[in-house]
């Protein structure tokens, strides 16, 4: 069974995810209000995001090779990071140390380099291996539901992964925080790699946040 999937993102008025300074406090406050079991993130977004966690990548320590002890009342979400090419090798401990994450579960494919798989095993990271060349996201989410009991997953990622999630009909809701700024040519469209058109949405909620931002929530209507 598939968990419920919500796309959550902060964008400019003209639909860009870059070229402006998002209010991360509001972004994560609204995201955490969903109480997700897990957040799904693409590897490129995760790699870019390391700059928000640390100015310089710290050296690994002995504790980074062990799973963290998780209390039953820990409200934080797991992070599902899709990384079929293994570009986060040497960086995974940054996410494991994050105050926003219980721990990391990595989504990989059959063609993921074996040295990267060994890197994950040596550090006791859980991983889901599915898909021939790229991660089969649908199957990975089904496994996450069966193996870990994830009922609600929120995507906190960029345009590529979010476009894949919509293309495959996996998204039930889209949550957008509109920042009152226009990025123009330097912007990067949220759904820039989406080839499917005519996707219909139903507005569920609209809210003004701190007299500056607008939070919109849409239901994705199934065909």
Automatic annotation (TrEMBL):
Domain of life: Archaea
Keyword Hydrolase tagged: no
UniProt entry keywords in alphabetical sequence: NADP, Oxidoreductase
A Pfam family this chain is assigned to: RibD_C
SUPFAM superfamilies registered for this protein in UniProt: Dihydrofolate reductase-like
Pathway assigned to this chain's UniProt record: Cofactor biosynthesis; riboflavin biosynthesis
Keyword Metal-binding among record annotations: no
PANTHER family cross-referenced by the UniProt entry: 2,5-DIAMINO-6-RIBOSYLAMINO-4(3H)-PYRIMIDINONE 5'-PHOSPHATE REDUCTASE, DIHYDROFOLATE REDUCTASE FAMILY PROTEIN (AFU_ORTHOLOGUE AFUA_8G06820)
Name of the featured protein: RibD family protein
Organism: Methanosarcina baikalica
Lineage of producing organism: Archaea, Methanobacteriati, Methanobacteriota, Stenosarchaea group, Methanomicrobia
